[in-house]
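Quick one:
INPUT:
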């Protein structure tokens, strides 16, 4: 049960930080353009890369949610066996 509680806290943390990660990608794009790291013709490709980076957090959160569900199912299955 303690593992489920800790995993739930980790899942909650990941879900709360998702919007922050997408905002960070948006701010990074603005910053790259403003300081001249990329040219305007590179903007489309850069957005794709930054979006892909943000989506890795979505994938990690999805895996964490699925792992939490797995732990809950294992725990409830153990309770039913008694």
């Amino acid at each position: 049960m303690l593992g489920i509680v800790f995993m739930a806290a980790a899942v909650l943390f990941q879900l709360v930080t998702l919007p922050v990660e997408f905002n960070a990608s948006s701010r990074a794009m603005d910053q790259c353009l403003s300081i001249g790291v990329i040219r305007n013709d590179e903007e489309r490709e850069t957005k794709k890369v930054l979006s892909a980076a943000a989506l890795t957090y979505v994938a990690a959160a999805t895996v964490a949610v699925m792992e939490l569900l797995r732990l809950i199912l294992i725990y409830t299955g153990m309770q039913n066996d008694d």
